Amino acid sequence: MGLEHYDIMSLEDLEEVYMGFIQRIFPYSYRWRSVSFSVPKCLHNFIGTHKFERLDALTTVRIAFQSRPDLPIARTRCPLVNVFSLSHSLHALHLDGAYLDLPIHWENLTEVTLSQSVGGEAVSPSKLLRLLTLSCTSLRRCAACITPNLRAITPDIDRPFKIVLPHLHTLDLDFNTPLCISHSSTVELISSQLAMIFDAIVAPVLTHLRVEFIGPQTMFHWSGRSPRTYETLPIVSFVQRSGCTIQRFKPHFPMAIDGLVDLLVAMPSLSEFAMNPICLDSTAKETPFVSFVHERLTPELNPLLPHLETVYFTACSALHVESILAFAEGRCGREIETPRKLRKLTTSFKTFLEDMEVSAQLQKLRDRGLSVHWSSPKDTRGNLYDDDPLRGMVGRREMHKGLEDSHIY
After folding, report:
1. Structural contact between residues 80 and 39, judged by C-beta atoms closer than 8 angstroms
2. 279-288 pLDDT, tens per residue?
3. Does residue 332 fall inside a structural domain?
4. C-alpha closest to that of 61 among 30, 25, 35
5. What is the pTM of this model?
6. pLDDT one-digit tens code per residue, 226-275
7. Which domain does 356 fall in, by range?
8. Do the beta carbons of residue 374 and residue 362 sit within 8 Å?
9. How many domains, the chain?
10. What domain of life is recorded for the organism (predicted)?
């Protein structure tokens, strides 16, 4: 069941449309297994006063609170307090913020997603740690969009103990970075709070890890002659302390090549790896990504990630073509146990590539059993003008780009 809120309708229209609907469907709440709520404030009172008999079958709840920035959701007036208090079988919870004071049976949750909050309770590092503490005995999957505390450089809590997550196998962390991520003070601030999270937890069965910076600075437009990079040591220490076997890993933040190598050395069983070269390539004249692929991933003897089978390289440039092809050639060669044969390579490029020679080389790789997906934007050099209504809007353009907008090699 889902209740959605559309801004094109007035509050009166919404109330009229939804009131009859929810009055008919709420009496059957005892049958609910999965519900999604996103309702306007005009219906909060009705939902909050509805007498739910029991919600024993409910296992999944997704909620987006429709609140203004000056009206955060409080425990005492949240319209779904009764839903949470009666949902003893709830296992999967998706919230648009860190509403940790709601009467949720956190100790029963196996999956939690805290998405980016719009005018609600932002997910700070300390709130994420509190969530992990509340659900540590049962949690298996956790995804959170974290908003660093931009006014605090030192951790805002003193945690003398580790949060042990014995069943956690998937951890996806997005850091919403509204400021320039290359500024020295921002690097220090966010680094300390990233360390605050990874220094506090232990996850012995973790197999999937993603750490990604999102927001206006996603493209990492470094300023100045000396680009700033983020320390990977807290993540390395976390993996080593946990003794976990990471099999899938995606880092997406500015880092030095040695920092990335340290990460991958700590993950020898990695079978799936994804990254954007811009995480390493700090300037147009220098391409550490080429050196990384050529010197660390390609050698036949003792390469990094000997069990690697699936690779995703995104937003590459023409400067990277030769090293990626050499990597694929070296990794899909002999059928030997170590290094394991590469099975799948997916590569996307920022600009169109001349494909005469590339296509021939890719076909040779396919003939040897490698699944290759190689794509770039279409060739627009012959166009008289760009009639794309989203031109100049890079983020929205990327969101709307599909196969029909791509050149497949």
Report:
1. no
2. 896 655 668 9
3. yes
4. 35
5. 0.86
6. 456 788 999 999 999 999 999 999 999 889 999 999 999 999 999 999 99
7. 272-409
8. yes
9. 1
10. Eukaryota
